From TrEMBL:
The chain crosses the membrane at residues 244-264. The keyword Ion transport does not apply. Keywords: Membrane, Transmembrane, Transmembrane helix. Pfam families: Glyco_hydro_108, PG_binding_3. Residues 11-93 form the TtsA-like Glycoside hydrolase family domain. The keyword GTP-binding does not apply. Residues 97-166 form the Peptidoglycan binding domain. InterPro entries: Lysozyme-like_dom_sf, Peptidoglycan-bd_3, TtsA-like_GH18_dom. This is Lysozyme family protein. CDD domains: N-acetylmuramidase_GH108 (cd13926).
């Protein structure tokens, strides 16, 4: 919900903490939940470690809203879910967070497409749920998130912090615990915010999301956008029937194949946050 944004961003900020640069963190240098690569994308230029350390909370919150909250449609999600999903997105990427939301909805019988986009189908499935079902969804979602985190090779290093972030000090939902699962469920239950325990920072690193498979990557416009000119050239070259035209066409096809390959590699290796 739009009205929950100030509280959600405050909680995410407490979970993320300030500047960290752990050697085993796949996200690299991070400040206020923003990785160096994301900050460079946001500013459109390279940034130094000094500039990373100088990142203001205000700019970080602007990035978190544009890159995570807005992408997962935080304004439209019901109370509680509007915290669980953006927190997952900040930690492991919006695509992974949305897919696991869709999978959790399917665990409840929604039967929707898992496509990393919160569109009409996904929102329709969410809007059919009553308050009790929203709380059930939050719990399924956080449990699925934990299964993903446990599967990561860096869980041995960062698992304790991740577990405290998502589940708190005890598994399940408690009104006096500090996990995302606890606060999100209390938000959904309309607990007064001052009565909800705040999160603690545990040196949380970025969780690596699943890399897109080839089919997922090919469905993204980044894989095809740069090749439009080559496709146009191919059409023009094949207007003739001579060997020269066909040789040029074959060359263009080869360039297209190489271009698609590297576009897919770029998408698959994109920033995990």
């Amino acid at each position: 919900m739009q009205s929950n944004w100030p509280q959600v961003i405050a909680w995410i900020g407490l979970s993320e903490g300030g500047y960290v640069n752990h050697k085993n963190d796949p996200g690299g240098p991070t400040n206020h939940g923003i990785t160096k690569r994301v900050l460079e994308q946001w500013r459109g230029k390279k940034v130094s470690i000094a500039q990373m350390k100088a990142l203001t909370k205000k700019e970080a919150e602007d990035i978190l809203k544009a890159r995570y909250w807005d992408v997962v449609r935080g304004d439209d999600l019901p109370s509680g879910l509007d915290y669980a999903v953006p927190d997952y997105a900040t930690n492991s990427g919006p695509g992974k967070a949305i897919k696991d939301l869709q999978r959790s909805l399917n665990d409840m019988g929604a039967g929707i497409k898992v496509d990393s986009v919160i569109g009409p189908e996904t929102m329709g499935a969410i809007n059919k749920l009553d308050e009790q079902q929203i709380k059930e969804l939050i719990q399924l979602y956080c449990e699925r998130r934990m299964r993903f985190l446990r599967s990561l090779k860096t869980f041995k290093t960062f698992g304790r912090g991740w577990t405290k972030r998502v589940m708190g000090n005890r598994t399940g939902v408690q009104t006096d615990d500090i996990g995302v699962i606890d606060r999100a469920t209390m938000l959904a239950s309309k607990y007064p915010v001052p009565n909800i325990p705040a999160p603690q920072n545990h040196g949380t690193a970025k969780g690596e999301p699943e890399k897109p498979n080839v089919i997922d990557a090919l469905q993204q416009p980044e894989a095809w956008g740069p090749l439009g000119g080559l496709l146009t050239s191919l059409g023009a070259m094949t207007q003739g029937n001579g060997p020269f035209q066909w040789a040029l066409a074959a060359l263009v096809v080869a360039f297209i194949a190489v271009g698609v390959f590297y576009a897919i590699r770029t998408i698959q290796n994109a920033d995990p946050t």
